[in-house]
Amino acid sequence: MTIVPDLLDFDELLSDEERSTRDRVRAFVDERIRPNIADWYDRAVFPTELVPELAELGVLGMHLSGYGCPGRSAVEYGLAALELEAGDSGLRTFVSVQGSLAMSAIHKHGSEEQKQRWLPQMARGEIIGCFGLTEPNSGSDPSSMTTFARRDGDGWVLNGAKRWIGLASIAQIAIIWAQTDEGVRGFIVPTETEGFVATPIAPKLSMRASIQCDIALTDVRLPADALLPEARGLRAPFSCLNEARYGIGWGVIGAARDSYATALSYAKTRVQFNQPIAGFQLTQQKLVDMAVEIEKAQLLALRLGRLKDAGKLLPHQISVAKLSNTRAAIAIAREARTILGGNGVSGDYSPLRHAANLESVRTYEGTDEVHTLVLGAHITGISAFRGAATEGAS
Question: Would 327 be classed as within a structural domain?
Fold first, then answer.
């Protein structure tokens, strides 16, 4: 049984449909992910066998409508992200890369032909996509990317490199962002194209049950219809990143909740000085602090979800959740580990795994520093970014 803090009766704020979606994903995590994740993490294995099951669950491109996509609400997608990350950040990241990044890029910026060709297969998990924006020397400042696409007759030739690209070595298509003589543009690149090479990054101390890669692009030749026609400038990839950041604001609560639940269960059964350690004042303070922060994070995420479903969500509001909820989740995972004592470093318990994963989540889709400056610019009206980086950060 999943232990959930219930200080404010959060479920009362959800519709029957939202609770049903949440419970369905939670049951999947309990059955398919939770019993196996320690082994996957230890062996640094991403369970590709779960891809068709995740498609059947309806979480691939979950928030997108049409073209075979599930068309669920933003709140339902957020709740699903929370439950998936309670299993592991790597599994939630797969859903995010597939749906919020790769599929969203095609859904938002692709031609009708591109949408019809790719999205139904991606929603069914038959095609895996990745999203190539970050480069070895271009992380928080994507305006400095050096990957370049030049016109060659009716087509294009791409050269460059990308780094920390989720799923690239198992993907069938890559959304690659490149500088051109017309500014930043996006391309759908079949990964079997000559000159495209994806190499998994190893060893990793975080996100071990996930895949991140280096991509090398050497004279990659593409036809004219590989171009995403509606993607122009940095606002195009960042409209997709905002979809992913929204999911993160929900997802990290799952890692925090699972860490809390593990610590609470352990504290009730671990006896020291002739009583369960849950009866000690310092342990209770830790548990209360965790529960309160989880409740606050859920309310923040739900507020964003309601705004998103109403079409009113703004980029700086997403930054509030990405910054605050991720920061809180890391603190909760670390504190939960202390309740476990020495046993907390064992793979039998989840908090330290969650804490390690959250260091990656904290970094990707905008670091703490980037989101702080996004909010600083909103509050003061003065941007601390330089040049084009302002657009990229928002």
Answer: yes
